[in-house]
């Protein structure tokens, strides 16, 4: 297939490009060459490229920044997907749209299924949910993929931040009352590659297996990276007092993925090892 990837310069965009390039012809589009918030620009780009499928990995993901830049959040996370959905539907091609665990309020005591009712508490979550709704309403052939706690090469992420802070500080306070499934972009990209080979349109939760808190994830990062001498203290979300509310429970049940008889993504601890190994290779 000829696939266009919007947001191709981002962390997930890079991973999707690396995986799909093995089997498909790719065109990566990102700022400044394409602004997905501009409908005319989207229509012009897609009409000239004539892709067989679009993957939208573009997003405004600064969760706290969204609280003070609401217009930008909704432009990128809602209007952008709307524009892509309109054009994809006009061209009669599928659209893959990446969404987030933040569409839920995080109060459930069990993992969230795709059929559970969203209730976003932050501007980021509300803007991403609006984007989802546009895609569902305006594009008949769509895959909406919700994921969580992404990390990977070619971008700042929680793992890289913890590794950096371990070099700068001898003590860290890490949140221990938010639970999720850390997800490696390379594994998510591989799952996307498998999903688009069949017209099983709909909404999917796709994350690595296993769950932990940010505190527990930090301990695992330091253990695998061989970092000693940094004291890690568990703290509460309330103690860090961030502008945007965070879901307490971000665990997504990959229910619809299993219904396709797909294997669960590997455990986050195994995926983390591969990511850390890739960083070591980059340093060499």
Describe this structure in words.
- The chain is α/β, with parallel strands linked by helices.
- The protein has one domain (2-156, 183-209, 246-267): NAD(P)-binding Rossmann-like Domain (Rossmann fold, 3-Layer(aba) Sandwich), CATH 3.40.50.
- The chain contains 11 helices and 14 strands.
- It has a 6-stranded parallel sheet, with helices on both faces. A two-stranded parallel ribbon has the order 6-9.
- The radius of gyration is 19 Å and the shape is globular.
- The two termini are 35 Å apart.
Keywords:
44% helix, two-stranded parallel ribbon, six-stranded parallel sheet, alpha/beta, Rossmann fold
Q: Indicate the proportion of strand residues.
A: 15-25%
Q: Count all strands and give the number.
A: 14
CATH fold description: Rossmann fold
Can you count the helices? 11
Shape: globular
Biggest sheet layout: 6 strands, parallel
Work out the radius of gyration.
Answer: 19 Å
Low-confidence stretches: none
Structural class based on helices, strands and sheet pairing: alpha/beta
How are strands sequenced across the largest beta sheet?
2-1-3-4-5-10
